[in-house]
């Protein structure tokens, strides 16, 4: 997994618009969007481009190796959301 969205996510969706490979979900028109507490990066589909990072107003997106210690649960949560 190249990038991880942490629980600081505010679901602003700027990252969805910036992603060139459509790997951030759920989108507003997808089932489960309203119930989702945050957005997630598909660890298989992500191409490591980093386009999502600078547009995140909550500074909630990190390279896997840079996820802060207090946000490590987000690594597994992102993968689990996609059943990976």
Provide a descriptive summary of the structure in words:
With 84 residues, the protein is of the alpha+beta class. It has 2 helices and 4 strands. It has helices at 14-18, 73-81; strands at 3-5, 24-25, 40-41, 61-63. The strands form 2 sheets. The chain has a two-stranded antiparallel ribbon. The chain has a two-stranded antiparallel sheet with strand order 2-3. The chain starts with a strand and ends with a helix. The mean pLDDT is 94.
Structural class based on helices, strands and sheet pairing:
alpha+beta
Continuous helix count: 2
Distance between the termini: 10 Å
Total DSSP E strands: 4
Low-confidence stretches: none
- Run of helices and strands: EHEEEH
Biggest β-sheet description: 2 strands, antiparallel
β-strand percent reads 5-15%
SSE topology:
Elements (H helix, E strand, L loop, with lengths): L2 E3 L8 H5 L5 E2 L14 E2 L19 E3 L9 H9 L3
Antiparallel strand pairs: 1-4, 2-3
Short note summarizing the structure:
It contains 2 helices and 4 strands, in the order βαβββα. The protein has helices at 14-18, 73-81; strands at 3-5, 24-25, 40-41, 61-63.
Structural features:
Alpha-Beta Plaits, 2 helices, two-stranded antiparallel sheet, 84 residues, 17% helix, alpha+beta, single chain, 12% strand
